[in-house]
Design goal:
By secondary structure, this protein is an alpha+beta fold. It has 14 helices and 16 strands. The two termini are 28 Å apart.
Length: 405
């Protein structure tokens, strides 16, 4: 994703930071000031400026708590408005995650704030660089899960380790997805889960080492800091716990091997797994995305040696098409609270199933209860078979006790 991201203090329009990434034309300082100035003008006249389109760019504005205004400039036609609004909310939550809501609202020393806010840049880079087919969690605003029969055993290891670390929040990540987590971890909001996922997965921690980061949970604890401690058990396998001021990092580190040594063989085997461990899934299925909207979790799987990059891009585009045109996404509250669902005035009936037929593939989506399912098939499958195969897929996934979605 190519973008310009700018943050300004609402009171006075003082710039806080500017980030640019990708192949996009540079923006001059005068144009940057103008973009903020037109937003200030609208606000002073009781008008809300949300977005605009030029020949080359899409520009989005959003203010939070009358303290910070975010401006996002992307290439024209790349992304939908609902996704950009969701992304801006996520970016502000990252600022709260690293800086704290009270400090953002007060921000008495702007120069000091500019220095401290830089701590969030690695997380912002991770989220913005992943806002395409490479990371569906940003699009779906859910945490990706990893399903395997070994999850039952791994849950016991995690619960014991979290208790020893005096933490109610713990999660084991395998191949950039949450395999198991404690009950309180799953109770965190969707935004918090996504930010934590990116912070843990993209943290630069080599095997056998750990990292410690002071964080604020944007909705659970926006003003009281916690410690996020991440251990890399082996490549692509990390365990994270959220603690208070105690115990010490050394104390927790000494307990890692005692709780996870006996699980290393299972973890080593799971690292090589890709497609869900169910032999009864239709062979015509290239990949699928299952979302549980009530739990803020998703399961994303692709068959190996099936051009996963291409299939992932197809699934990403299909998801954006269906969500943007049929299953309207929730609209986040401008004050930064949990989003609320809306209905379309142009649609007076509930769409439960939809599909697309292309030359190289077919795609099918349906919603059932809290689940939304998106499936990519090869082009050979008959149209009449897609519905049965997709519904059977959900049944196979949800019947397993070790499935967390």
């Amino acid at each position: 994703m190519a973008y310009h991201l700018m943050a300004f203090k609402c009171d006075g329009g003082i710039p806080l930071f500017t980030k640019t990434k990708g192949n996009i034309d540079p923006i001059s300082l005068s144009l940057t000031a103008s973009l903020n100035g037109v937003h200030l003008f609208c606000s002073s006249n009781d008008a809300q400026l949300l977005s605009t389109t030029t020949n080359e760019f899409r520009i989005f504005w959003k203010s939070y708590h009358s303290s910070v205004t975010l401006i996002l400039v992307t290439c024209n036609g790349d992304y939908r408005d609902w996704l950009m609004s969701q992304l801006l909310d996520l970016i502000f939550s990252v600022l709260v995650f690293t800086y704290g809501l009270d400090d953002i609202i007060s921000m008495k020393n702007v120069d000091q704030a500019k220095k401290e806010i830089k701590a969030c840049f690695p997380i912002l880079d991770s989220i913005l660089q992943s806002n395409d087919s490479s990371c569906m969690s940003i699009l779906t605003l859910t945490t990706q899960t990893f399903s395997a029969s070994e999850n039952v055993i791994l849950q016991n290891h995690l619960d014991g380790f979290s208790e020893a670390a005096q933490s109610q929040y713990g999660c084991l990540f395998i191949n950039a997805a949450a395999a198991v987590a404690t009950k309180r971890w799953w109770e965190l909001s969707a935004v918090e889960l996504v930010i934590l996922e990116h912070t843990v997965i993209w943290s630069d921690v080599s095997q056998g080492t750990c990292s410690e980061l002071a964080i604020y949970l944007p909705q659970t604890s926006p003003s009281v800091p916690h410690r996020l401690i991440v251990f890399t058990l082996m490549p692509d396998v990390k365990v994270a716990v959220i603690c208070g001021t105690s115990p010490s990092l050394d104390s927790i580190t000494q307990k890692v091997n005692g709780f996870w040594q006996s699980a290393f063989d299972s973890l080593l085997n799971l690292r090589s797994k890709n497609f869900i461990d169910t032999a009864n899934i239709d062979n015509n299925i290239f990949g699928f995305l299952v979302i549980n909207t009530s739990r803020n979790r998703s399961l994303l799987n692709f068959r190996q040696n099936q051009g996963m990059g291409k299939q992932r891009k197809l699934l990403c585009d299909f998801y954006c098409h269906v969500i943007g045109s049929l299953w309207f996404p929730p609209i986040p509250d401008p004050k930064g609270v949990e989003p609320t669902a809306i209905c379309s005035s142009s649609q007076n009936h509930l769409v439960t199933d939809t599909y697309i037929c292309a030359d190289e593939y077919k795609a099918y989506a349906f919603q059932s209860g809290a689940h939304r399912v998106f499936v990519i098939f090869n082009s050979a499958i008959p149209v009449y078979s897609m519905r049965f195969a997709a519904h059977k897929l959900l049944q196979l996934i949800t019947k397993e006790k070790w499935t967390t979605v």
